[in-house]
Amino acid sequence: MRYSKNPDLTGPGPAGNNLNAKPPRCKDYTQHFSLRNLCGFAALREIFLICIVGVSSVSAQKIVVGSKFDAEGRILGEIIAQHLEHRGLQVERRLGLGATLICFQALTNGDIDVYPEYSGTIEQAILKLANRAALDELRQQLQQQHRLELLEPFGFNNTYAIVVRRADAERLNLKSIGDLNSVSDWRYGFSNEFLNRPDGWPGLAESYGLRAIPKGIEHGLIYRAIAENSLDVIDVYSTDANIQRYDLVILQDDKKFFPDYLAAPLAREKMPPAVKQALNELAGTIAETDMIALNAAATIDQKDFADIARAFLQKDRPTKSMPETRAQKIDWPAIFRRSLVHLFLTGFALLLAMLIAIPAGVMVYRSPSMSRPLLYVVGLLQTIPSIALLAFMIPFFGIGTTPAIVALFLYALLPILRNTTAALFSVDPLLKKVSLGMGLTTWQRLRHIELPLAAPTILAGIKTAAVINVGTATLAAFIGAGGLGEFIVTGLALTNTRLVLHGAIPAAILAIVVEFIFEWLEKILIPKHLLQKTAE
Amino acid sequence: MSIISLDHIFKSYNDGKDYALYDIQLDLSENVTTAIVGTSGSGKSTLLQLINGLERPSRGKVFVFGHEINYAQLPALRRRLGYAVQGTGLFPHLTVGENITLLAILEKWESHRIKARAEELMQLTGLPADFSTRYPYELSGGQQQRVGLCRAMMLDPKIFLLDEAFGALDPITRSEIHEEFSRLQKVEPRTIIMVTHDLKEALKLAQQIIILHKGRIEQIGSGTQLLENPATEFVANFFKSQLS
Question: For A151-173, what is each residue's pLDDT tens digit?
C-alpha cells in the first residue's frame, strides 16, 4: 500500500476510498521504515521502467488481489478483481504468484489482501490437519491462527481425480479407481505435489491397495505424456479442461478418499466489511461445468484471462462479445519490456553482489581465518532451492522486485567471493615480496598489484554469477517480480509451448549476450598476455 | 659513522631451538659495495632482509641511516632502499615504463620529473626509450634485469639491496650487466649490499665480502684479504671449491 505524502490535498477519492480510511500518520511512519521500504528496490525498478518504457503507475490505496500461477487461479483472481472493480473498488492485481506456499506467505504478510484458495489445500497443506474438517472448522482455525477469513465458496469442487485414456477405460471396462488393480504394468505419472502429499498418492495407494511405482512429472507436461502414450494413469484436477481435450475418463472415487477442494476467496480479516460483502456476492455462481468451460477458454482456446473473466461476469450484464483468440503473433513489445525487467533484476543483484563479495574477498585474503566460515555460509546459501529461497524472502521483503533481487544477490555472492579470494591468494609470492620490499603500503599493494593481477579471475567469477542469474531470474515471476519468467509461468499454466518459448528463447539469448559483454569487458580491461595466462 | 649497523642480531626459528642468524655484529660504511656470500641455507637472504624489515630479528637491533628501524613505518624506510631480486619480479600487468615509475607516481612526483628520471635511468642502463610502452614478457632476461635495476633506482635510494639479482642470467648477459653495474656505481655511487652464491661475482663487484656459514659470520674483509689470509678452514675450503 502506498500513501501520498500529502493526502489532504487530494480530496475525496473514488468510491472505494472510504472503505479504506487512511491510517493515522504515526502508522504511516512504521510503514515507511519497514525493511522493504528502506531497500526501495521496487521504487527503483519503477523509476527504471518509467525512464525506459514510459510506464507509470502511481496509485492510492487499493485492494490487492493475488492468485497462484495456474490458469484456474488466474481466472478466479480476475473474476474477483473485476467484480470488485464493478462494485467501484480500486484493485491492484498480483496474479500468478507461484504456488500455495508463496501465495499464503504473501497473504499473511499483508502483501496481498485476497486470493482464491481451496478448502482441501487449507486443510492439508496450510493447517496440516489430521482429520477431515468442515468449512466452519477451517474458518475458525484460520481466524485464530492466521487472522484470515475464508469467504463463501464459488460453488465448484476442484478435487484430485485419477484419469485414464477413454479407449483404455472402455476396452478394459474401468469405472473406479479400485479397478486399476485389475491391470498390471501400467505406467503411472503424477505431479510432484500430488506424489508427495499425504492426501495424494501415498494415501490413495493405501486406501485402494494400489502397488504401482509412479513417476513425478511437471503438471504442465502431464497431458502430453498420456496423449503420447508415455504414461497410462495420471492425476488431474476435476475441473481441468484437458480432460475433454485429450479424451480422458475420470475413474470414480468410490471410497471418497479425496477431500473436497471447494474454491473460495481467502482474505485478510482486516479487509473492510464492504469488500467481504462484495466477494460473497460471488458465492455459488460458478458450477463445475462453468469452471471447466472457463479453463477450456484459457488452455484450449488460448483466450486472455481478463477477457474470459469479463465474459463470465457479463452473462447477466449487458453482453459484449468476447474478443478473438489471443493473437498468435509474437508480442515484441512485451518481450522487450520483460527482457528489460529481467536485465534490471539480474544487473542490480549482480552489482550489489559485487559491492559486497569483492570487499569480502579482500577481507578474507587479509585475515584468512575468516575464509572458511564465510565461504561455508555463502556456499550453504547456494544449496537452497530457488523457490524455497524466494518463499523465505517474503516475511522479510514481501513480494515483487525486492525479494527477487535479494535472492539473486545471494546466489551471485558465492562465485564472486570464491574467485576473488582464490585469485588474491594465488598472486605470485615473489611479486608480493617485491611490492612489499619496494615500500608499497597495504592499500597500494592491493590497488596497484594484487587486485589488477587478480582481475581476470574475479571477472570470470562475475561472469559466472551473471549467467547463473539470468537463468535463475526466470523464477522471479513466481513472486510477482516480472521478467521473462512471466511468459514461462503462464505458458506452463496454459500448456502453451509457444508462450513458454516467448520467455525461454529471449532468456537464452540474454545469457549469450551477457557472455559476449563480459568477453568484451575482458578485452578492454585486461592486457592480452594476462588473459592467455589465466586460460592456460 | 656507518650507514647500516646490526647490533648482536639473533634470528631463531622452531620456537628458539634453531638459529638462522647467530650473534651478527656488523657495521657498513657509506658508498661501499658489500657482498654476502655463503652456501644455500647459510642465512644470507635473511641477513639482507633484516635491513628492509622483511625479516625482524628475534633479538638485537637494526640501525639504518643512523636510526633504529621503526617497524610501524616500514614503507617510508623501504622507499629509501632500492630492492631488486632474482627473476626480476617485474609486475606483468604494468608496462616497462609503469614498472619503473610506479614508486615515483605514488610519491606524487611531478610528471616532467618522473619522465626525465625514467629516461635518464633507461639511457644509463642501455635500454631503448621505446621499450617503455612494452610489457615485461616482451623483453629478454637481461633487458628485464635492467628494468628491475631502473625500478629500484627510480627514487635515487642511497642504499641498494640486491638479492641474487643477477642469478638467473646466462653468463654473457650476466657479464654485460656487471659492466653496467660498475659503471653506474661510478656515476651514482651508493651503499650496496648484495647477496650472491657466486664468489667470482662478489670478487668482481664488491670491495668488502662477508662469508656467512650456518648463520654466523666466518670472516669479513676485502677479496684479497680473504684469499690470502682465510680466518677459518671453511673460508679456505670455500675459496678453493669456488675458484677452482
Answer: 999 999 998 889 999 999 999 99
